Amino acid sequence: MIKKNREQFCSYCEYSGIIFNPSFELTGDSVLSPCPKCVGAKCKCGAEEPYYYFEGENIVPCPCRDTRMKIGRVLDIYYSSGIDKKFRWKNISDFKVGNNRLAAEAHKAAYEIITKFPDVKKGLFLWGNPGTGKTLLSTIILTELIRHYAVPGKLIKISRNFFSLLRSTFSESSKLYGQSGAIEKEFANIDVLVIDDFGVQRDSSWEQETLYNLIDARYEGEKFTIITSNNNPEKALKELSEGRILSRLREMCRILELSGEDYRENK
Q1: Element holding 225 (H helix, E strand)
Q2: Is residue 1 one of the residues assigned to a domain?
Q3: 244 Cβ partners below 8 Å, 6+ apart?
Q4: What's the N-to-C CA distance of the chain in angstroms?
Q5: Quick one: 95 and 182 in the same domain?
Q6: What are 126's strand-pairing partners?
Q7: How far apart, in whole angstroms, are the C-alpha atoms of residue 218 and residue 252?
Q8: Same domain membership, residue 166 and residue 48
Q9: Complete DSSP assignment for 28-41
Q10: Could you tell me the residue range of the domain that residue 260 belongs to?
């Protein structure tokens, strides 16, 4: 599925060296662990940090060290990504297509992103009526990219997280006072960003300009971006910021409709 390292790893772990434990919440095991067949079998450090062992008189890194360090990075990134608990650790097989042609097309696009990253040139803009699986699919993509590539990524809800966070920097009583620039820079520069529930910000010219600056910065930096919205961007964004946001999104993202019956009621 993912780009494979057949010389170092085995088919049991899909040539990644890492195993996902789907029952981790019940068993108490780690959600991710080194493959017992191609990594664990070569371990000489007893799985004890900092994953070195004695070879004669020399202290050398254990064959398992790189994989265990990668797992640590993945978990650090993942649990600070902003993915809601109910969507955590979902994978591409959790998105059920059924007979929905639009869902099948979106599933295919997600699979291509996951398997071809970072060589994918365009992100994804998923739009459609509520409850059709847009947030689920976008978080699946983010989860898979972090899990397999240890790529830094975050999810934000544009009104609840992004604008609220920025507004809090204007209050002298806030711990974030004066840090709006740092927050905007973080979201502009992170390798993968999911913007969930992308609304039409017509109430404030500040919101429109801030949103455009975020999109434009990610466009200029060639940062991978996934967006979900209940609105058709070709209609809803046509007049917003004089069409500048829509123009950027067309270049940055593949725009796909994801509509149909309520996914949450039929899964």
Answers
A1: strand 224-229
A2: no
A3: 212, 216
A4: 24
A5: yes
A6: 228, 256
A7: 9
A8: no
A9: ---SEEE-TTTTGG
A10: 85-266
For 189-238, how does the pLDDT look when each residue is reduced to its tens digit (9 = 90+)? 999 999 998 875 556 788 878 888 899 999 999 999 999 999 888 887 77
187 pLDDT band (50/70/90 cuts)? Answer: very high
Picking from 49, 78, 107, the residue at the C-terminal end of a domain is: 78
In a shared domain, residues 198 and 113: yes
CB environment 233-253: b (16+ within 10 A), e (fewer):
beebbeebbeeebbebbeebb
- The pTM (predicted TM-score) of the whole model is 0.89
Q: Is the previous residue joined to 36 through a cis bond, with omega within 30 degrees of 0?
A: no
Question: Of the candidates 78, 101, 133, which is a domain's last residue?
Answer: 78
DSSP H stretches of helix in 87-157: 101-116, 134-149
**Residues 167, 224: Cα–Cα separation, whole Å:** 25
- pLDDT band at 182; cut points 50, 70, 90: confident
User: 161: closest CA among 193, 126, 123?
Assistant: 193
Tokens (6 digits) for 211: 């949103």
Cβ atoms 212, 241 nearer than 8 A: yes
Please count the residues of the chain. 267
Distance (Å, whole) CA 69 – CA 63:
11
The CATH number of the domain holding residue 140 is 3.40.50.300
Neighbours of 217 (CB within 10 A): 15
